[in-house]
Predict the 3D structure of the following.
Amino acid sequence: MKILHIVPEFQEGGVERYVLQLCQEQINHGHEITLASAGGKLEKFLPNEVKFLRLPVQLKNPFTVIYSAVKLAKINDWNIIHAHSRVPAWIAWFASKMTKTKWIMTAHAPYSLNFGIKPLKYAYGVICVSESVQHSLENFLPQNTITIPNGIKKPKFLWEQKYFPDNKKFLYVGYLAKRKGLDTALKALGNLKDFEWTLDILGDGSQREELENLVDELGINDRVKFYGFRDDTDKFMSMAACLLFPSRQEGLPLTVNEALAVGLPVLASDIEPLRPLANGKLIPVGDVEAWREAIKNVIEGKPASPLSSEKLITFEETAKRVEDFYRSVLS
C-alpha cells in the first residue's frame, strides 16, 4: 500500500511518537510511506524510506488548509490518507474530494465538540485510541469507527526495582503544557521539602518557562532538573523510583504504557483512559493536596497507584490492526 500520514508538527509528544512507530512498522511490512508535516525534532528518527513533505498543516487557517490540500491532491500518489489531529482531517477531507482517495483519521484525544471536528463524520473510517475517546466523540463519528489502543514497543531497559526510600528519584515524561498537569505535581512536591526527593523532567513545550518559574517560586530548583526532549526515556524509567503522571486529559497515555512495560511504578491522575488499567483508586485530577498525600506515601515506601500492565498490547499488534482497518476501508 501507498500511505500518506498527515501530522501537524513532528515535535515530541504521544501523537508524534505513535506516528513514528507506525511509519516504522509499515515500512517493515513493505508499504510505501509519505509523511506530510510542518516538521520538528522527531524528523531525524524517521526511517530513511519515508518520504517527507513539509507543509503548513499545523495552521488553523482556511487558506493554508486549502493550500495544503491542493498540494497533496496534485501529487495524488496514495491508496489511503491517514490524518492525525483536526487540521489534518480538514486537509485530508478536501484532498479526498479532489482526488477520490479514501481517507481515515485516528482520534488521539477527546477533542472539543465543536465545528473543528466536522470532517470526522465524512471520513471513510475513524480509529479511536481508547473507548473513552470513542464515547466522548460518538455523536461526531462515522458508522465505520473502531477502537485500536496504542501498543508499546519492547523496552531496551527494565526497571532496576529500586524504590523509595532507597531510591529518591521521581520522573516526569511528557509535553510541557497545561493539560499535562505538571504544575499540580510541582506544587505538591513544594509542600514536601522536609523529605528527600528529586525530580527529573523529560520533555519540552509551550509551558516550560512558566514551569521553570514555578519551580523557582516554590524553592525547589535544587531538586528539579529539566532535561528537555530525550529519546532514551526508557533508560531514565529504568533508573527512577516512580513516574508522576498528573495529566488532566488524555486519549490513551503512551507514557504510562511505556512505564508499565519497563516495570516502573506510576502515580497517576484519575482520568477515564487509565481506569481500565487500575486495580484501585487513582488520584483526583488537579487536587494538589491529594497529590501531596500520594507522593508522601510513596516517599515513605508505600505502593504507588495500582496500575497493571496485563491489558497492554504490543505496537506490532496495533500496527497490524491499523493495516487491517485500511484494507476494510479500501475493499
Observations:
- The chain has a mean pLDDT of 94.
- Residues 190 and 219 are 7 Å apart (CA to CA).
